[in-house]
Amino acid sequence: MEPYEIELDQARRRITASGRDPAAFKFDMSYVPPDADAAGMFTIQYEVNILNTATTKSLSVIGGIGSDWVTSMENALNKGHFD
User: Of 47, 50, 40, 39, whose CA–CA distance to 64 is shortest?
Assistant: First the structure.
């Protein structure tokens, strides 16, 4: 299982734990090109676009090694960003 898929499963569980329906959320992931100035240190990063289809509220977060997009999404969820 890819790291993104593991994180996606975690995100859906946190949505459920908040009392919301994870089926109302759409997730789109796209890889971010490596930084050419990283001196050969290429870290895989990806952008995750999250949409609450019921409210049409969305959020874009960056994932990858050292980037905890699931917690960022959960914080936004708990602050009512998707309501």
Answer: 47
Q: What is the pLDDT of residues 22-73, one digit of tens each?
A: 999 999 999 988 777 766 566 788 999 999 999 999 999 999 887 899 999 9
Residue 16 in domain: yes
Q: Is 70 exposed, middle or buried (0-12, 13-18, 19+ CB in 10 A)?
A: buried
> Is the residue at 51 inside a domain?
yes
Number of domains in the chain: 1
Residue 75 host element (H or E) = helix 69-78
Q: What is the dihedral of CA 53, 56, 57, 58, to 10 degrees?
A: 70
Q: At what angle do helices 3-17 and 69-78 cross, to 10 degrees?
A: 20
